[in-house]
Amino acid sequence: MNHFAEGFDESNVIGIPVLDFILGTSKQVFADAINKTRETKTVQNFEHFAYGDNMSESYYHNFMVPIDIKDGNIERIWVGGKAHLIDNKLQNIRKG
Fold first, then answer.
1. 76: pLDDT confidence band, cut at 50, 70 and 90?
2. Which residue segments constitute the domains of the chain, with CATH numbers given?
3. Which residues pair with 59 in a beta bridge?
4. What is the pTM of this model?
């Protein structure tokens, strides 16, 4: 992360489980990406809803990269992505 979303800082982010910032059914999307990364040992791309600036609903494109593979097991997964993917896309999703 190169910066905190507006309204967030170290005191309300560090040590908090990532799923606490993921919204609704996107929690399962995020968990599925973690599981698929572990199973396939390949990079996974996915989109989901999570909190953005000032706890607003935002739409993200993330990827998970398996790192630190030992004895065929993934020890850590790096999560990266584009914050606030496309505001237009979020608006289109809301419109239905």
1. confident
2. 10-95 (3.30.450.20)
3. 49
4. 0.74
